[in-house]
Amino acid sequence: MKLFDVLGGAAKAVLRSRDEHCPPHVHVGHKGEGWEAKIRFSYVDDSVSLMEVYPMRGRPSVATINAVMAEVRADLAICRSAWSAVVGDLDLVNRWFDVPAQGKVALLARRTKEAKRVRSASYDAGRDIVTLRFEDGSSHMMKAGTGEVE
């Protein structure tokens, strides 16, 4: 499914609708130059990162990849909405979070004494809200990309 044009229309950002897998990502392909990049994104923060580029021969320049990542970052709401609708898995189940009463929810690299583990997660594209349901029965809503507790 085409999501949006990239690089002034020279490339397209797409989400594959079959056999897609976590982590959440989009494919950006440039048919004229013959390359495709996989760009990872998050529901917790606004980071994007390069997963891979293929083929290795004829790779785009670092400046081009940076421009592609900036355009994906600018359209994260579209990416998140499409991924949630097509794949459904936000890649947050079984992850550990620090959940303060106010402020920002923080994804942790490992378990801490106060950490909560995610049992399920969902995304409301209309409100740009992620709902995290934890193993202890509690749930928290956060603004996608900011971690701000709603």
List keywords for this structure.
150 residues, 2 domains, 5-stranded antiparallel sheet, 10 strands
Textual characterization of the structure:
This protein has two helices and ten strands. It has 150 residues and is of the alpha+beta class. The protein has two domains: 85 residues, no CATH class; 48 residues, no CATH class. A five-stranded antiparallel beta sheet has the order 1-2-3-4-5, covered by helices on one side. Strands 7-6-8-9-10 form a five-stranded antiparallel beta sheet. Strand 1 and strand 2 form a beta hairpin. The longest helix is centred in the middle third of the chain and has 13 residues. It is elongated.
In terms of topology, how is this protein built?
Elements: E1 2-6, E2 11-14, E3 25-30, E4 35-41, E5 48-54, H1 62-74, H2 76-86, E6 96-98, E7 106-107, E8 116-124, E9 129-134, E10 139-143
Antiparallel strand pairs: 1-2, 2-3, 3-4, 4-5, 6-7, 6-8, 8-9, 9-10
Can you give the helix content as a percent range? 10-25%
What does the average pLDDT come to? 94
How can the largest sheet be summarized?
5 strands, antiparallel
Beta-strand percentage range = 35-45%
- Tell me the span between the first and last alpha carbons: 31 Å
Q: What is the count of helical runs?
A: 2
The strand order across the widest sheet is 1-2-3-4-5
Order of helices and strands: EEEEEHHEEEEE
Structural class: alpha+beta
Tell me, what's the shape?
elongated
